[in-house]
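ok here's the first one, seq then struct tokens
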Amino acid sequence: MPQRSDPLKNLKTIERKSLSVAHFFEKNRERIQLISANGLHESNREIVEKDLHRPGLALAGYVGLFTYHRVQVFGNTEMKYLKSLDEDARAEAFERLFEFTIPCIVVTNDTALEPRLLDIATKYEVPVFYSRYETTKAYYYMSDFLDDQFSPQTVIHGAFIDVYGVGVLFIGRSGIGKSEIALDLVERGHRLVADDVVVVTQKGEGILMGSGTDLVKHFMEIRGLGLIDIRSMFGIRAIRFQKRLELIVHLEEWDDGKEYERTGLDSREVTVMGVSVPHVRLPIFPGKNVTVITEVIALNYLLKHYGYDPAVQFSQRLKERLEDRARRPSEDRAIDWFEHDFE
């Protein structure tokens, strides 16, 4: 019998240390309507933290808590403060920021720096970007982007499918049939997220998002057949680019000497990057319809998610029946009598 493997053991977490200002500008140019004010949008200056900073206190002269290594956001407060100063004081306050190595400046609310201030930023080779979005909205989009870029990631070998809206990740030893099960599910109307290489990203507290890689995308390898393109073959309805990871199904060969879950009362979970995910060990053997079982697993997960646990309900009914039979005997039949049509 092939040796069991655990694809979730010794997962390596990958965390990005920095990203360039050029990458930041390119990815946000459309999202928040960024415009390069001084032509330095291809700068290799590095952003090393996901948080943003409003430099109001630094402009006023207090730099003790100036987190200069963050993207600096100039909203109405900063712009109105600068306008309240005379020309020389305004230039002095603004130039004070460049005593530190700041990555870039984003000016929101469709406002602009006056030419003298823009020249100072250009002299220190600091990119300045303008956004027509209001500060709150621009702040939200930039924070969301940076949070995603600096989120921890890991790579899991498996097949990731959206089954009835539930993100199901199949894992198991190489060659056990993960891709074939995924293909069968796609043919039944479910949606492929990734096959073979699944990139899992931690988003916020308790949320894992899965996607494929830019190279593989929605290609799938079927042993004996080769590579197939799910999107071209089944259409756009058969794929997703991302999905929340909600359930892990571990496929393994049937072992007569092993005990398997029979009632479902003992819920199992595994930890991926500190997040607990429901875990099902599914023994398989030739002829077993794993596709239909997977659909049932997904539907059962949805029932539990919305407050109905079949195993708990059955256990409660069994307990009530045993207590009732202790008081009086009863027939072990689901109905009291058969109707006359005998269908």
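and now the second one, same deal
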Amino acid sequence: MLGRMCAFVLVAEDDEKQADLIRRYLEREGHTVGVVHDGRAALEQVRRHAPDLLILDVMMPEVDGLGVTRVLRAGPRPGEHPAPGASTLPILMLTARSTEDDLLLGLDLGADDYLTKPYSPRELMARVRTLLRRAGGTAHLPPPDPDARVLRAGGLVVDERRHEVTVDQRRVECTPGEFELLAAMAAEPERVFTRPQLLDRIHGSSGYISARTVDVHVLNLRKKIEANPRSPQRLVTVFGVGYKLVAHHAAAGGGAVAEGHGGAAARHEA
């Protein structure tokens, strides 16, 4: 059995009974918990206390969960104090919205995972453990695995121990879900991964997550690691199969497998 990881988890949920239930389950797992009931308070607490994980309800007063995610991932406005680690803070969304487009919008803004209401508290705790494990190395968690690897594919370097990604010596900030997907592909460059295979790497065997989640992560990663995201040369589509990470990519605009329409094929391909 894996040892427990004690983290500081911020819960942003406007339903006080639901928030208290989540808090009790988290504390039972050994975590320290902060609770707020609106989006503006969530942003303030993230800036003040740098939590290891944010559990974020979508439907909240002041600023909704989508707005909170957008602000955290976009970074501070001029004159604002930056929130330490906000760009990579693991975010687990809770939502009563059940349509796939609504859920994928949250992921597209930078959330790492989601649960639709009603949900099982045991399932919620399993998702929390997965996100904290993927985000290992934060201030409140144990040090990362000493056997972690440094993975390379051309100018792309994924350092599992430091939980860092660089592209041509330029540091790239990735969410935990993006990092896990990139690490899986960097461990086997040139291998073609199907969406279910990648989904299993980033979310385990849960049947609640759509395979289109992978497409959202891929599109977001391309914005960060590609010179031209509309003509990807590192993280490319293999039509009819899935994705692969190219070890020695060509100059932007070349390459037989590269997708050329801003990820449209990835969004619609079965």
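notes on #2: Confidence is low (pLDDT under 50) at residues 137-144, 250-270. The two ends are 37 Å apart (CA to CA).
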